[in-house]
Structures are given as structure tokens and as C-alpha cells.
Design brief:
7 helices; alpha+beta; five-stranded antiparallel beta sheet; 20% helix; 352 residues
Length: 352
């Protein structure tokens, strides 16, 4: 599929790369070598194609994640597919190569991105319908679909997506800032359920409040709390633990040092923060935290809950969504499913 839709054909003239301090632009015409390096940075590197308000707002996703999500979609020739988040058009081209001409409908909220993607797809010979619209509403005119895939992250799966996917059909979408799920629509169309497929970071829906970055969280003048952290800090890099904590406390962001100094930074995107460091090798750590919430304490409580549940792996977790609610669960060794309730209940997104 990739051979028939090479990545560089869907990359715009202007790309953006992180120089360690800020996003800087790279033009193909003036610096073709750096531009090519940005497009083909490696299987785990995304290519940022648009910046809005200082943050990435569209990209060519890293090849490994694209392959993982397409594999999760279980797409067959002839399937009718709704893609939400056209972006540059590369993923739509891959879908069209597999499903066939006239089988892909793609929706993009940004009119200019939609127009550019349509041009690229047409030039490459792919028959794909590209529409400008709010992805949360899907595209009811083309329903029902056999498959639905979103290329941006949602906290709550819009019910319109389930309604527009046939019973037995499959929905693959990134969830929050960590991981993606594959849901199968029930025979009666009144629910969709499925397993977590993997970990990755995705851009959120365009109208999402992304909150503050770590560097923007106010820390001066706040009262600080210092104390012990009961767990080895290094273990916060465990993907299964990270997902379990993410599901319990959706707004807490955890950044773990990639080096050997075993440091974790936590914040809630608003006013609370914590720094956890290792005190003695792989033993318990030390925490400094500030703001209205004690984030290190919240994470320690979630960690204890995960341990008490038998330390379920990432792939033991799944999601179910209905018209009334959405919830995460895990399945134990006996095949019994248990709700993994977050501290703050997930709400349905606004009506389109």
C-alpha cells in the first residue's frame, strides 16, 4: 500500500520541525534535504504540516502508528470507509489503495487542508470524496459504513460514529493523549465495544482545549508539599501502568525522563504540578508538588489500584460506548470484565 502512495507525495511545500526551543519552518524549495529528512524521519517520527497558535494542528503521522491503526481497522477490498481528519490525504490514499476506488469518504474541518488533500489525491489517481465539515458529526449522507477511522484524538467517541457504522462494522480511533481503540458495533446498533490496540500520542480535535504545557504551569508563589513517593519512579515508563493511570485521571499528564536520572513531571494543564525523583536507585522516590491538587498523591493512589487489580496489561483494557455513557474496562485472567472508572466521569461531546 505504501509503495502505491509514497509519503512525500502528500507532504506540503512547508513543513515544521522542532529545533529544541520552538517550531521552525522548512521549505522544500529552499532546503530540500532537510525537508526530505522531515518527511522520512523514521518509522516512529511524525511530520508536522501545520502550526496554529504555536502548537501542531496537523501532521503526517509516523509510519508505525499508521500501519498499526490500518491493521486494527481490518479493512477488506470493497469496504466502504469513513475517514475523519483528512489532513494531507496520505491516510486516505492508503485506505483507497486497499478498499478500491469510490469507497472512501473523508472529512476535514480545515477547508484549505481539505482542498489541498483532494488535489493531491486526484493527481495521484485516487478516487476519494473529501468534504469539509466537523468530524464529530461524521458524514451521514454516505452511511452506513463498513469501517470508520479517525486520525485525531477524542476523549469521548461521538455517538454519530456508531450510528453511521453498520452492525458488525469497526471503528478505530485514538483515545485521549495515549493509545487507540478498535470498537465493533453490536448487532442491535446500540453499543460498540472493543480492545485497546496500542500506545501513541495523537493531536486532539481542532476545538479541544489543550490546556497549558509544563513550562506554562504557574509555580512561583505557590505553597509546595514535599514528601515520599511510595513507588519506583522508573516504573512510570511502563506502558500498561501509564494507560491505567491515564484512564483513571484523564487530565493528568505524565512526562518521564528518557535518561537514567529517573525523574517524572506531572501536571494537569491548568494549575497543579508535581516532580517525582528517585531517592535510592529503584526504591521509593521523593515528590514535590503544588497547586490545588496533589497530583503525586493521586498517581500513587491510582498505581495502588492498578497493583491491587493484578497489574492488568495495556491489552487487557478495552472500551464500551452506548448512547448514555462510555467507559473503560479490563478483563482479568478468568475472563471477567471490570469497570475501570475514572476520577471524573467521561461526558458525551457537544452535539454537532
Amino acid at each position: 500500500m505504501v509503495d502505491k502512495a509514497p509519503r512525500h507525495q502528500y507532504a506540503p511545500e512547508l513543513l515544521w520541525v522542532w529545533d529544541g526551543n520552538s517550531w521552525v519552518s522548512v521549505k522544500r524549495s529552499s532546503d530540500p534535504e532537510r525537508w526530505t529528512s522531515a518527511v522520512y524521519g523514521g518509522p516512529y517520527e511524525s511530520t508536522v504540516t501545520q502550526i496554529m497558535d504555536g502548537l501542531p494542528s496537523s501532521s503526517l503521522s509516523c509510519g508505525s502508528v499508521v500501519a498499526d491503526m490500518l491493521d486494527s481497522l481490518k479493512l477488506s477490498p470493497g469496504d466502504r470507509v469513513l475517514e475523519l481528519g483528512t489532513g494531507s490525504g496520505w491516510n486516505a490514499a492508503l485506505l483507497a489503495e486497499r478498499a478500491g476506488p469510490g469507497r472512501i469518504v473523508s472529512v476535514e474541518v480545515d477547508a484549505q487542508l481539505a482542498a489541498d488533500a483532494q488535489t493531491r489525491l486526484h493527481t495521484a489517481g485516487f478516487s476519494v470524496e473529501v468534504h469539509t465539515g466537523d468530524g464529530a458529526a461524521g458524514w451521514p449522507a454516505g452511511a452506513p459504513y463498513d469501517r470508520l477511522i479517525a486520525t485525531y484524538a477524542v476523549e469521548s467517541v461521538p455517538w454519530a460514529w456508531v450510528e453511521q457504522t453498520r452492525p458488525g462494522g469497526r471503528i478505530v480511533t485514538p483515545w485521549g493523549r495515549l493509545g487507540h481503540v478498535a470498537l465493533t458495533v453490536a448487532d442491535d446498533g446500540r453499543s460498540a465495544s472493543g480492545w485497546v490496540q496500542g500506545l501513541a500520542t495523537f493531536m486532539p480535535a481542532r476545538d479541544s482545549d489543550q490546556g497549558l504545557e509544563w513550562s506554562q504551569i504557574p509555580r512561583d508563589g505557590q505553597d509546595e508539599s514535599r514528601g515520599c513517593f511510595p513507588r519506583p519512579v522508573r516504573e512510570l515508563a511502563d506502558g500498561s501502568l501509564l494507560f491505567a493511570l491515564r484512564a483513571l485521571s484523564p487530565d493528568i499528564r505524565i512526562i518521564v525522563s528518557p535518561n537514567d536520572d529517573a525523574t517524572a513531571w506531572l501536571h494537569d494543564g491548568r494549575a497543579s504540578w508535581a516532580v517525582i525523583t528517585a531517592d535510592h536507585g529503584d526504591g521509593p522516590g521523593a515528590a514535590v508538588q503544588g497547586g490545588p491538587r496533589l497530583l503525586a498523591d493521586e498517581i500513587a493512589g491510582g498505581w495502588e489500584r492498578w497493583t491491587s487489580a493484578g497489574r492488568p496489561s495495556l491489552y487487557d483494557f478495552g472500551m464500551t460506548t452506548t448512547p448514555e455513557e462510555q467507559y473503560i474496562w479490563y478483563e482479568d485472567a478468568e475472563g471477567v470484565r471490570h469497570r475501570w472508572e475514572p476520577s471524573v466521569p467521561m461526558r458525551r461531546p457537544r452535539a454537532a
